[in-house]
User: Which sequence fits this backbone?
């Protein structure tokens, strides 16, 4: 039996302009936002080379995170504030 997607994760959400600057125009589901964020992070080589779990924010990500470096777990929490 196929696993059901959590409806909260697949519901399209409205994104803040700061978040749209990174992942593209919304609305989009949380799962898609996280996927696109990781694509952006990898494409711009923004993982801390000493600790891959940390993200080094460029100017666009600083607008979302509010600081220069965050952990993967912080990132998810901070991005939630940019989705309604």
Assistant:
């Amino acid at each position: 039996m196929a696993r059901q997607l959590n409806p909260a994760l697949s519901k399209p959400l409205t994104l803040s302009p700061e978040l749209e600057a990174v992942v593209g125009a919304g609305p989009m589901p949380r799962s898609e936002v996280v996927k696109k964020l990781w694509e952006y992070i990898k494409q711009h080589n923004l993982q801390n080379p000493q600790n891959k779990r940390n993200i080094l924010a460029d100017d666009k990500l600083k607008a979302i995170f509010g600081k220069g470096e965050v952990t993967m777990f912080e990132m998810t929490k901070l991005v939630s504030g940019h989705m309604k």
In short: Strands lie at 12-13, 28-29, 54-56, 69-71.
